[in-house]
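To whoever is on call:

I kicked off a structure prediction for a single chain this morning and the downstream step that reads the tokens threw a length-mismatch warning. I double-checked the sequence; it's 208 residues and nothing unusual in it as far as I can see. Pasting both halves so you can look.
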Amino acid sequence: MSRWAHPVLTNTLVVLAATVLAASAGASAGAFDRIFPVRGSTSYGSAHHDYPATDIFAACGSRVVAPIRGRVLEVSRRDRWDPATDRPADRGGKFVAIRGADGVRYYGSHLRSLAGATSPGAVVRRGQLLGRVGHSGNARSTACHLHFGISPVCSRTGDWWVRRGVVPPYRYLRSWQRGGDRSPRREVRQWRHRHGCSRSAVLGAMTA
């Protein structure tokens, strides 16, 4: 047999190798490797009361972590909720919102406390400690849980009517809990295209 490789076979192998490498690079570029936002034993349902979100029940003090790499948009280290006024903007108590690398806003509230490094503008890695599960805000009389919301990044801060959640997180949470990486990006983009971000569009004309 010749000591020289057959040119057709060599070219075929080169093309196959290039195809595999390109596919691998594309998969890596599109994956964000999301994870479940609460560590330890949890329970949660598929339904929420009057808007799309998920309450993840866990032991008080359980670790709340970043579900994806990103940057902190806003936080509240003080529980400003007063039952006498029941301001909607304060109902989440202590909270954190991050903009994920996928462009989606991830929001967690009713926290007991926030980690020291959790501050606006801070870059966070996937799985980084953000805070601890609690029952601050209007959850004072309920069991400890993390209120988890998914939404587009609109005005970045202050838009509580969007920040609290506009897309049901349940099927995404189930995926991440099982080691999957289901992305809410498309659904979030579609929601914003249909509704926009104004308070009247989200809450309705009666509460504008």
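Update from on-call: the warning came from a stale cache, not from the record. Cleared it. Sanity check on the structure: Strands lie at 42-43, 54-58, 63-65, 70-76, 94-100, 104-114, 123-124, 129-133, 145-152.
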